[in-house]
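[agent] plan:
  1. take the single chain provided in the ticket
  2. run structure prediction with default settings
  3. attach structure tokens to the ticket
  4. add a short note for the reviewer (M.T.)
[agent] executing step 1
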Amino acid sequence: MIETLQPVLPKTPVRGLCLHIGRSGLCIGDPVTLHLTDSGNVCLLAEVTKRYLGLLPYREKALLGHLLPEISQRLTPALLQGAAMRVRIVDLLPEHLSGPQGPEVHISIWADPQVLQRLPSDAGRCN
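[agent] step 2 finished; step 3 output follows
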């Protein structure tokens, strides 16, 4: 059976960034993994570039941040079912280009509409 993935959240911000975006090696289009914590929050893991002894680069999964609580609540049933989702970085604003608001990362989530209801388009937007 072929699953048709459609945009559920075209662009939503990542909150509580846990790493330096400029040094992480992240790019637009990089895959992100959703991880459900014991507290019910959805955390994001991404493969970032780190350096051994400051010289030798290697890639490893690292905590990127988390999603808003209302989005986490909507995604929790699908994550518990193991629904197929495609999560990618769609927008990056590293530290050296950001103003006083700080760095920003936005992701998009694509899923099977039969498994996951379409979220409101304004669910991830900042006011």
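[agent] step 4 note for reviewer: The chain has one domain: 6-111.
[agent] ticket updated
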